[in-house]
Amino acid sequence: MKKWMISIGVICLIGALYMLPIVGFSERQEAIIPQTSDKNACEIFIEVEGQEEKIPLETYITGVVAAEMPVSFKKEALKAQAIAARTYALKTTNYGKIAIAPTVAKQVFYDEEQRKANWASNFLGNEKKIVEAINETQGQVILYNNELITAMFHSTSNGKTESAYGYGGNDIPYLQSVASISDQTSPKFEAEQEWTLAQWNKLWPIQWQPSDFNRIQLFYNDSGRVERLQLGNNVWTGREVRTLLGIPSTDFTIIFNANKRKVQVKTQGYGHGVGMSQYGAEAMANEGKTAAEILHYYYQDIEIKKIDACLK
């Protein structure tokens, strides 16, 4: 794999094709005018599955931030999201050489048509806010030992982020568990779901009886998430249970409510819990923290630098 040079300087702009759209408003706020550049600009394009054409990197990041983080969040939180999303995209696509899915398995992406539909009459104002966050972080990425990190992020932790080791068994120095207490005020912090026993049994490879719920053993890891669930000789990882049930996180409890004759599962947090908590980032931004301070908190011993796309 070719490595890209990283420089602290401004991204080389000697190139063809337009760069990230800059929001340009008339007095009536009628249009968003794309920024254009010189003919020979060095530019990275991202191939998004389902899109007809490749998309300039910064335009792609605009669509990711709009999809992944509420536009109501503070600009510093949006900037932190932009830097994390840009890093994740370049790492995952090998600087645009591999296509990326626009889904939660990778990064959700909304094109301009989707953003207009979602934001309706407030499209121009929301687009301006997102694009400003992108422009102010243009080209910035997160590095560890001069290599792009795997910049994982999630909506809401259970009060503590998950480590890479707790999630997948691999210890990654910059993905360690940190406190994120403010997540407990997130609207996505707690959830409860119910199933009849018949509905529940359709989801599992075994058939449960009401008495089985008293025999469940849940083993938790250091971040308070379920490492494994054991029922007799049957064992599932917390991640397997989350996928099987479609629940928000791996911090869960399971009971059978005999009065209602239903299985009840309560969860805390939303997402895999690794890396930056988006609601935690918003809380830090509300406290006056900058995007850089947010990223240095959730990713340990990292650097934030600009890529130089001309030094390929």
Fold and architecture overview:
This protein is of the alpha+beta class. The protein has nine helices and 14 strands. The protein has two domains: 6-181 and 289-307, no CATH class; 190-268, no CATH class. The chain has helices spanning 57-68, 75-93, 112-119, 123-135, 164-168, 197-203, 238-245, 278-286, 291-298; strands at 6-7, 45-46, 55-56, 140-144, 147-148, 153-154, 190-196, 217-220, 226-231, 234-237, 252-257, 262-268, 276-277, 303-307. The strands form five sheets. The chain has a four-stranded antiparallel sheet. It has a three-stranded antiparallel sheet with strand order 7-12-11. It has a three-stranded antiparallel sheet with strand order 8-9-10. Strand 8 and strand 9 form a beta hairpin. Helix 1 (57-68) packs across helix 4 (123-135) and helix 2 crosses helix 9 (291-298). The radius of gyration is 22 Å and the shape is elongated. The model is unreliable at 1-40 (pLDDT under 50).
Note the main attributes of this structure:
312 residues; alpha+beta; 2 domains; four-stranded antiparallel sheet; three-stranded antiparallel sheet; 9 helices; 14 strands; 29% helix; elongated
Query: In total, how many domains does the architecture comprise?
Result: 2
Helix content: 25-40%
Cα-to-Cα separation, first versus last residue: 11 Å
Q: Helix count?
A: 9
What value does the average pLDDT take?
A: 88
Described by the principal axes of the CA atoms, the overall outline is elongated
- Tell me the β content: 15-25%
Uncertain spans? 1-40
Series of H and E elements? EEEHHHHEEEHEHEEEHEEEHHE
Query: How large, in whole angstroms, is the Cα Rg?
Result: 22 Å
Biggest beta sheet attributes:
4 strands, antiparallel
Structural class: alpha+beta
What's the β-strand tally?
14
Strand order of the largest sheet: 1-14-4-5
Pfam family, one: SpoIID
InterPro entries: Bact_Sporulation_Assoc (IPR051922), SpoIID/LytB (IPR013486), SpoIID/LytB_N (IPR013693), Spore_II_D_firmicutes (IPR014225)
Protein name: Stage II sporulation protein D
